[in-house]
Amino acid sequence: SKDDLIEEVFRRRIEQVNQVRLSELSNLRARFGDSQIPVADLLRAFLSPVLRIGRARDRGNNFFRLVARAHAEPSELVQRVLYSQLKEIVQIFLSELHRSLPHLTQNELSLRLAFTAGAMVQAVLMPMNMVFGKELITDEEKLVDQLVAFGVGGMMSECPRKQK
Q1: Which letter does DSSP use for residue 104 in this model?
Q2: Which of these, 16, 84, 89, 26, lies nearest to 56 by C-alpha position?
Q3: Which of 8, 21, 68, 128 falls 20 to 30 Å from 85 in CA-CA distance?
Q4: Which residues in 139-163 are b (16+ Cβ under 10 Å) and which e?
Q5: Domain boundaries in the chain?
Q6: pLDDT band of 111, cuts 50, 70, 90
Q7: Segment holding 103, helix H or strand E
Q8: Fold of 2-156
Q9: Higher-confidence position of 52 and 105
């Protein structure tokens, strides 16, 4: 059926991204051992595979633009498929983020990761030559660096009206 085809296409590509994420996380765990993994490294491992694969000049670009649009214009099927494919990997990264940011609640971490993921979606949709100020964003690694810096700022900052 059409729904099965959509589900399979999403599953295959998201699985590819998640395998890269897990590989990068495994390398970080090996490097840092029992120590806290820096938030920037965790966010880079979570975000960069999407940007690398999603902005690739092959069909990856089209697929991740579709995923990004699905976030903006959700259909029940796409939301269900995305949730089923991302639930486990998000929980793994939230656990690691909690180790590095133990003062934040699970809810705070979840929200901040969701906001960062939203910025990632915008980066996937953004044309490579989009102009911010006078500088063209043509270097993918520079884009990842800026996205990670944005995410770290959000993760590390104190909430202005934190409830007691």
Answers
A1: S
A2: 16
A3: 128
A4: eeeebbeebbebbbebbeeeeeeee
A5: 2-156
A6: very high
A7: none
A8: Tetracycline Repressor; domain 2 (1.10.357)
A9: 105
In the chain, the largest separation of any two C-alpha atoms, in whole Å, equals 51
Average pLDDT estimate for 56-82: 66
Q: How confident is the model over 76-91, as a mean pLDDT? A: 85
12: left (phi over 0), alpha (psi -120 to 50) or beta: alpha
pLDDT in the model for residue 110: 96
Kindly provide the b/e burial profile for residues 17-33, where b requires at least 16 CB atoms within 10 angstroms of the residue's own CB: bbebbbebbeebeeeee
Residue 110, token pair as written in the block: 């979840």
- The conformation of residue 159, written as its DSSP 8-state character, comes to P
Q: Which two tokens stand for residue 52?
A: 């690398």
Average pLDDT over residues 135-145: 76
* Residue 151: predicted pLDDT: 97
